Amino acid sequence: MDKKFxxxxxxxxxxxxxxxxxxxxxxxxxxxxxxxxxxxRIIRVLRLACTQVVILFNNQIHAHAELVAVDKKKCTFVLxxxxxxxxxxPRITAVVPLLKGVDLEDAISWVTQVGATDIQLLKTDYSQRxxxxxxxxxxxxxxxxxxxxxxxxxxxxxxxxxxxxxxLLQVYKxxxxxxxxxxxxxxATNISILxxxxxxxxxxxxxxxxxxxxxxYELLAQASVHFVSLGPTVLRSSTACQLGVGMLRALxx
Length: 253
Hints:
Order of helices and strands: HEEHEEEEHEHEHEHEHEH
Largest sheet: 6 strands, parallel
Number of helices: 8
CATH class of the largest domain: Alpha Beta
CATH superfamily of the largest domain: SPOUT methyltransferase, trefoil knot domain
Number of domains: 2
Strand order of the largest sheet: 8-7-6-10-9-11
Helix content: 25-40%
Number of strands: 11
Strand content: 25-35%
């Protein structure tokens, strides 16, 4: 990054991040934005002027980009620095039950903000929400994009379609699984297990609104998961998802 550009960034109060569908790895230095929705955000909502800088990113790349030209349907940026997105370590999978209403979108947004590397949806015996496939998935991905623009952790977590608890415990049998529970041990007391380096994949599972069924609790006990407490109060499922992943990420820095 050249000295003049560094000074320009220092003088700009805030650098916005914008997700783009452009393959940033394949372009040279110039990127043209013609998508009408993104163009509207840049020119009408953010009101960017020429010489201002934003961060353009996709799933693989992020780059500081300077706006250099605007016409009625297109804006053009010059890429000043290009970097590959680096996922956070260790891998922390947020297991999010199919929650009702906006709680599911809230949980997805929050676990993305606090550093989940991927998200596995869970269908439980008492789930009260049906799953509509790609339509629901696309909506959740949009939530992830929006919060990634804010958090600037550009490795957006992939989100996987719902599976049952039986399937989850089989597919992820090599992972170290923590389950939020008011009667569990303090989450900090389990950090010594994590810092041994034995487990490369950690999962946090919050229970659904209606709790697990007796059958599911039996499955969890047989799988030797670790029940951990997130505090003295009973939390909403969406809040427990956020807090559990956030505490693990913070304690493992």
